[in-house]
Amino acid sequence: MNYVLGIDGGGSKTVCVLMDENRQVVSRGEAGASNYQSIGIATAKQSIEFAIMAATDKAVNITKPITINAICLGLAGVGRKEDIEVIKSVVKDLQNSQLLPINWALPTNNILICHDALIALVGGTGNSVGIVTAAGTGSIVFGRNHQGITKRVGGWGYILGDEGSAYRIAIAGVQAALKAYDGSGMPTSLIDIFKVYLELSNLENLVELIYRRGWGVTEIAALAEIVDLAAALGDRVANQIIDDAVQYLVVATSTVIDTLFSDRPVLEVVTTGSVWTGKAKMHQRFTASLNQNFPEVKVIFPKHEPAYGAGLLALQKLQHISGK
Amino acid sequence: MNYVLGIDGGGSKTVCVLMDENRQVVSRGEAGASNYQSIGIATAKQSIEFAIMAATDKAVNITKPITINAICLGLAGVGRKEDIEVIKSVVKDLQNSQLLPINWALPTNNILICHDALIALVGGTGNSVGIVTAAGTGSIVFGRNHQGITKRVGGWGYILGDEGSAYRIAIAGVQAALKAYDGSGMPTSLIDIFKVYLELSNLENLVELIYRRGWGVTEIAALAEIVDLAAALGDRVANQIIDDAVQYLVVATSTVIDTLFSDRPVLEVVTTGSVWTGKAKMHQRFTASLNQNFPEVKVIFPKHEPAYGAGLLALQKLQHISGK
């Protein structure tokens, strides 16, 4: 039996699935973050190793020995050649690891390193064709068509892009509250909701929190929940923010559809990320708006997790080779 | 003869003017940054001391001895009580400094510590009434009326506010270029202008520059010049960005006018900061738009620098006391 590893490495955790040649997940493990640009390559490597260990330790009790014939790593922020070289050397090191209870039979060709949007697409749709519209802390829209052509829109990070993301919704909410507070914007219940939720005596303390306590992108993005709640409660300003976010994601997704599926847009759009599960019905708004122009597009939630998608991609490598 | 010190402490430099009781600047000195929240209190104190030394060293050659009877420090980001206490202790230390060739006769009441918008207003108008619409790296609108009532709009910093500022214009320009690049936005010459100006082979390298080289707010804000240039050359997208910036500053300024000068808005609005001197005629656009609603408002460039305004405020303290 052939086995492959599918790995999803992100900013908060690393997931590894061990998959057999029949697309069955034999076992699954988790470890800490592995976005090496933020945490350093040594820590990232350790997280990947631990995730593999967590997955394979369980498996060897059932089936042994296990020989890995292909691996796919989908990693946040990995796109440039330099990044791929760094990760390739990590994989080389893993093959010499004393910790892992597995054997390797891994031709260079069977090592696939890609960005996290691709594995989210493959896991989300269960195949390699379609679009993923990701809107969590950050945002990106990525698609691949039947010819294997890919297209990306957005994903420019929290300073330059990420419209439609939780971070940008949160920032827009705080900005709107501050504008209502200083009189330069429309009144909004966001002032009171932020104050109650964050236990602030004064809205200006929010500025304090964000600048002086050094809140990062993740902490700020968590405030999107408050904006979502205010929108669900009927606040006009909050609803405008949610609509703007939806509208950007519709434009970005439409751009990918037009580029890749111009002939006949029958496809699945997978929505991933925290913004889709709020109370303000972003998912419904998005689907309704997208279907106005593309009635045959199906907006779905992921069928499988990204690590599963990585497993499928690793399997393709295997079949590609064995089919030669 | 009575003397006062007016000090303007900012993120890039500290300016000190020595002013006599007839509002005459006897001498002027400069030193490094003194925004203590970023650089620490020791360095900030040193910059303030050096600026005073630079100003007074020159003066003692002309007039001596010099006794300082009042001081006003206008400092970026200083507004909270805690900040004011910190700066008060700095002034105490300065009075014991061995470096300064001056005497002090400084009742606690004659020490005025305020934020930089107030001294910009007083310096800019040459008196204490009016509005300052500041749009440099950051933005804030601040006004004071004949009753001494003040009102501030904006000034929430680069993450939460600063609309109309160079930083926000720059970010909007880069975002627009990236959207044109990935197809989700309108075409714009900003792509080519950024590439040529920053010598990039590919626009995506800009993302590299900003995230991986750790560009700060100041470096990013400098890109506003490019957006301004593109607007002056007729680019529609860039002109929209400039118009949005102007429109925010008009709304913010109008909010202050409505709050403070509702009866009869005959007043001066002083524009300070780098955005007003670009090639895209932001100053003219702002004036035209503001005058539609407030035809009697005069939009002016500063008559004097902020440190001069600090000197005038220190002098008011003096006259207030001696008039008792």
TrEMBL record, chains A, B:
InterPro entries: ATPase_BadF (IPR002731), ATPase_NBD (IPR043129), Euk-type_GlcNAc_Kinase (IPR052519). It comes from the Bacteria. Residues 5-314 form the ATPase BadF/BadG/BcrA/BcrD type domain. It holds the Pfam family BcrAD_BadFG. PANTHER family: N-ACETYL-D-GLUCOSAMINE KINASE (PTHR43190:SF3). This is ATPase. It comes from Calothrix parietina FACHB-288.
